[in-house]
From TrEMBL:
PROSITE patterns noted in UniProt: HAMP, HIS_KIN
Pfam families xrefs: HATPase_c, HisKA
Protein name (database record): histidine kinase
SUPFAM superfamilies named among the record's database cross-references: ATPase domain of HSP90 chaperone/DNA topoisomerase II/histidine kinase, HAMP domain-like, Homodimeric domain of signal transducing histidine kinase
Record-annotated membrane-spanning stretches: 14-41, 178-196
Stored InterPro entries: HAMP_dom, HATPase_C_sf, HATPase_dom, His_kinase_dom, HisK_dim/P_dom, HisK_dim/P_sf, HssS/ArlS-like, Sig_transdc_His_kin-like_C
Primary localization class, coarse: membrane
Subcellular location: Cell membrane
Lineage, highest ranks first: Bacteria, Bacillati, Bacillota, Clostridia, Peptostreptococcales
Single GO molecular function: phosphorelay sensor kinase activity
């Protein structure tokens, strides 16, 4: 099997970035430990010497000065000497100090002290430092001088001599050690970056494979998360998307099936009655007119169905816009109920409106009329034996609430969330009005109220009736 490496893949880039980062760390370590060790050591030695000199200068004049200087000298491997400008020695290490060779300590640094004193006297500052080379031992010496007292003719000078040991051998040891450290570190970095990149990209690869199935129409595919919150959130979002696509696909299939059925029935009726007029009732005016009326009724039904479908499609696609204005909600409802007087007179329906004063709202008046008309039509179609429908309008602090209540069979709780879907009809609803609608009334209500950003819902109890309600902001 041929190994393929995708140079643009996340796995490869994470692996390379991690490895390059480790290599840079090793490179910095090599430079600091090998190339700059000697300079760093010398700078630290000078800094340490200056710090000790400041300590001695601060303690000059105290009774325990000599004791403290001896301790500092032995602890830090330094030769410390204090004398006046006329050669009077205030402090010098004892003759048993073996760090300066066979001769006494003062004699060993006599020439160096002379150099330091001459430079110090010529210098305007109170301190001076010199690196003194030693060709024989290849070990340089840091010579440091400072005035403890600069009174003319009574100057007190502090001398500090600190050996600068050669670090070449130490560098060689570090170099050989760093070779192993570098190899081990790089190997660990490559292995760790490979494991991390695999762990990170594996769930992404799985999600990509599932997305490919989703693109082919497999809406039941499950997206699995990984070890990270962001990937889990992505998987959850895609799972929700998959469910919504499956739901939309089912709704589309149901819509096509239902529309096909609803269109087929009136078209069949139109064709059948047209053939009857042609073959049977063409010469009989009474039958011909009856058959023609059926054709007209079915054509109206087709026109209503197509209009409702077109209206829903416009609202869902965002093409349909609202014409916002402020209007009297009470007058709007009264104008709607005027068209139902014939039902009250001829069929005994009782439409009761409860509102004691004018209430003004902001919205699209024609669309709100359509909402109320659809809800009232729905209530009239499914009301109980008493044929009573109640419309109530209540004003709250920030909004108004409109309710349409019937006394019909009610809707089971398990079906309440589905009644806003296209063509859905609750199983327990029994229509009193046999002239069925298009099955899109509540879907249109939902879309209009969503455009108004209104809250809406239904409360229903089986065998007691239903109350459809919505709330509009003032």
């Amino acid at each position: 099997m041929k190994l393929r490496i995708d140079l643009k893949s996340l796995k490869f880039k994470i692996w390379i970035y991690f490895a390059v980062f480790a290599a840079l760390l090793m490179l910095i370590l090599w430079f600091l430990q090998i190339f700059f060790l000697n300079t760093y050591y010398q700078e630290m030695k000078i800094s340490q010497t200056k710090k000790i000199a400041r300590t001695i200068m601060a303690e000059y004049g105290r009774d325990d000065l000599i004791e403290n200087i001896s301790a500092l000298s032995y602890k830090n491997d330094m030769y410390i000497h204090i004398e006046t400008s006329d050669g009077t020695i205030i402090f010098t290490p004892g003759e048993d100090d073996k760090r300066t060779g066979a001769v006494g300590p003062a004699l060993a640094f006599m020439k160096e002290m002379s150099k330091v004193r001459n430079k110090l006297l010529k210098n305007q500052s109170n301190t001076v430092s010199i690196i003194l080379p030693e060709p024989r031992s290849n070990m340089n010496t840091l010579a440091y001088g400072a005035f403890l007292d600069r009174t003319p003719g009574e100057e007190v000078i502090l001398y500090i001599f600190s050996p600068l040991y050669p670090v070449e051998s130490t560098v060689d040891i570090l170099a050989s050690q760093l070779v192993y450290v570098t190899i081990i570190s790089l190997l660990l970095a490559f292995a760790l970056s490979f494991l991390i990149s695999n762990k990170l990209t594996r769930p992404i690869v799985n999600i990509t494979k599932s997305a490919s199935k989703l693109a082919k129409g497999d809406y039941g595919v499950i997206f699995e998360g990984g070890y990270y919150s962001e990937i889990n959130q992505l998987a959850d979002t895609l799972n929700h998307t998959s469910k919504e696509l499956a739901k939309a696909d089912n709704l589309q299939k149901d819509l096509i099936a239902n529309v096909s059925h609803d269109l087929r029935t009136p078209l069949t009726m139109v064709k059948s009655y047209a053939e009857m007029i042609r073959d049977l009732s063409g010469d009989n005016p009474e039958k011909r007119n009856s058959h023609l009326q059926v054709i007209i009724d079915e054509a109206d039904r087709l026109n209503l169905l197509v209009s409702d479908l077109l209206q829903i499609s416009k609202m869902q696609s965002g093409v349909e816009s609202l014409h916002i204005s402020t209007f009297n909600m009470k007058d709007t409802i009264l104008s709607i109920l005027n068209s139902y007087h014939i039902l009250s007179e001829q069929e005994g329906y009782c439409l009761c409106f409860q509102c004691d004063r004018d209430i003004f709202v902001t919205g699209d008046e024609s669309r709100i009329k359509q909402v109320i008309s659809n809800l009232v039509n729905n209530a009239v179609r499914y009301c109980g034996e008493d044929k009573k429908v109640t419309i109530s309008l209540t004003e709250m602090t920030d909004y108004i609430r409109c309710e349409v209540t019937d006394t019909g069979k009610g809707i089971p709780e398990s079906e309440l969330e589905h009644i806003w879907e296209r063509y859905y009809k609750a199983s327990t609803n029994h229509s009193r009005n046999k002239s069925s609608g298009t099955g899109l009334g509540l879907s249109i209500v939902k879309e209009i109220l969503l455009l108004h950003h209104a809250r809406f819902g239904v409360n229903s109890v089986v065998d007691q009736g239903s109350t459809f309600w919505f709330e509009l902001q003032k």
